[in-house]
Design goal:
binds magnesium ion, eight-stranded mixed sheet, elongated, coiled coil, binds 4-amino-1,4-dioxobutan-2-aminium adenosine-5'-monophosphate, nucleotide-binding, asparagine--tRNA ligase, five-stranded mixed β-barrel, aminoacyl-trna synthetase, protein biosynthesis
């Protein structure tokens, strides 16, 4: 008899057929006459039932979680009253071990203990990834990337891939990672925005999905040293256009993710309370947010009542977002607390045409603005911020050769996922998190 063909755990599993499955032991229940094991292969899971002579072998008696196996058997329908967790199971007639798993880390790989020390979990991230929750988040992450790319295609933004090694700052010098570049100082990019702006004249609206790097000094649940930055830049627009585009992008991405039944199930499992946002998002000016914070007795980071010009720090922002409990466009931040390139509001020169998108549970997930399109004003802004203009000649040139009203935004993918998947920290939303003090595994 020839070997039955190998099937992935979600396909080809018609009842009655004899198949061969390959995977790892995800759950294991050993009884006197029967072994139930749940096999996983990254596509799906399948309960396999071993009986008779099969379970009296040394291999069966010493089976451990994560051991990789090949199992032959017949696929059978499970009677409805026993359906846990699936409606199919494999009745094994032969199995062989491919790779034994040492039994010492079972707790980490399958059920993360409630009292697990976070450092141990981060050290063992490669094994934690084998758990259901971590795998689900990474699958939604892939679905989100797919949805963003499809949405950008629908909106006719072209994908470009800017460099990560740069010689200019975008979001302030204090969070730059620097390194030696053939004897010169270079940095890891904080944002691809300035490069995206240079693409507009010949490519039209553009986007990129690229890592951004921030040497953050603080350990918070939403700051990474390396994160995936989804950035878009749009030409010949107004600030109102930018807000409308952002709403549309976010809602469409959510819609696309949830249209996929597998994704919808994963999101439901991870975050049962998730409600897709509805348009229009609530709009709130920075100045009104300051008033709101004062009225609600939410102090600034120095413990003082907020006043105009204060940064709205993470704690206050999160409290406000959680109380309002809807997506918010926070707009018109003061010039002093925002980046050099942001365009001033014509009707109030103290503030910029800027926007943060705030989501309940996380706070800021997007930062965007209209850009200074006037040459003299930009030169003035470099001076105000104490930035030497020479390294920016290529950026400044955009204002010399056919300038235009334009704007864009950056969305932190891990923050988007923390919101959508209801995760406590962005560290759960990437493959191998990088944050203050951690660069392994
Ligand atoms: O608000 P930020 O700093 O804006 C920019 O970088 C703009 N140049 C983007 C643009 O207009 N093209 O960062 C944008 C977003 C934030 O809203 C946040 O979601 C995410 O990037 N982000 C971080 N995510 C994780 N860890 C960090 N340290 C992050 N810093 C920013
Ligand atoms: Mg920001």
């Amino acid at each position: 008899e020839t070997d039955p063909s190998v099937v992935r755990l979600r396909e080809g599993d018609a009842p009655g057929t004899r198949v061969r499955v390959l995977g790892r032991v995800h759950r294991l229940r050993q009884q006197k006459d029967v072994i139930f094991l749940t096999l996983t292969d990254g596509y799906g899971q399948l309960q396999c039932v071993l009986t008779g002579d099969l379970i009296r072998t040394y291999a069966a008696l010493t089976l451990t979680l994560e051991t990789s196996l090949s199992i032959h058997g017949e696929m059978r329908v499970v009677p409805p009253q026993q359906r846990a967790p699936l409606d199919r199971e494999l009745h094994a007639d032969f199995f062989s071990i491919i790779g034994v798993a040492a039994g010492d880390k079972e707790a980490i790989t399958t059920r993360v203990p409630k009292d697990a020390d976070p450092q141990t979990l981060y050290d063992n991230r490669h094994l934690v990834l084998r758990g259901d929750t971590a795998a689900s988040v990474l699958k939604v992450r892939a679905g989100a990337l797919r949805a963003f790319r499809q949405t950008f295609q629908e909106e006719r933004l072209l994908e470009v891939t800017p460099p990560c090694m740069v010689q200019t700052q975008v979001e302030g010098g204090s969070t730059l990672f620097s390194f030696d570049y053939y004897g010169q100082t270079a940095y890891l990019t904080q944002s691809s925005q300035l490069y995206l702006e240079t693409c507009l004249p010949s490519l039209g609206d553009v986007f990129c999905v690229a890592p951004s790097f921030r040497a953050e000094k603080s350990l918070t649940r939403r700051h990474l040293s390396e994160y995936t930055h989804i950035e878009g830049e749009l030409d010949f627009i107004t600030f109102a256009d930018l807000l409308e585009h952002l709403e549309k992008i976010i809602c469409r991405v959510i819609e696309l993710i949830l249209q996929d039944p597998q994704m919808a199930a994963l999101v439901r499992e991870l975050n049962p309370g998730f409600k897709p946002p509805s348009r229009p998002f609530r709009r709130m000016k920075y100045a009104d947010a300051i008033d709101w914070l004062v009225q609600h007795n939410i102090p600034n980071d120095d413990g003082q009542p907020h006043s105009f010009g204060d940064d709205i720090a993470e704690a206050a922002e999160r409290k406000m977002t959680d109380i309002l409990n809807v997506p918010i466009f926070l707009t018109h931040f003061p010039v002093e607390i925002k980046a050099f390139y942001m365009k001033k509001d014509d009707s109030d020169r103290r503030v910029t045409e800027s926007v943060d998108v705030l989501m309940p549970g996380v706070g800021e997930i997007v930062g965007g603005s209209m850009r200074m399109e006037n040459y003299d004003e930009l030169m003035e802004a470099y001076k105000r911020e104490g930035i030497g203009s020479e390294p920016y000649y290529w950026y400044t040139d955009q204002r010399k050769y056919g300038t235009s009203p334009h704007g864009g935004y950056g969305l932190g993918l891990e923050r988007f996922l923390a919101w959508m998947c209801g995760r406590y920290t962005v560290r759960e939303c990437c493959l191998y998190p990088r944050f203050t003090g951690r660069c392994t595994p």
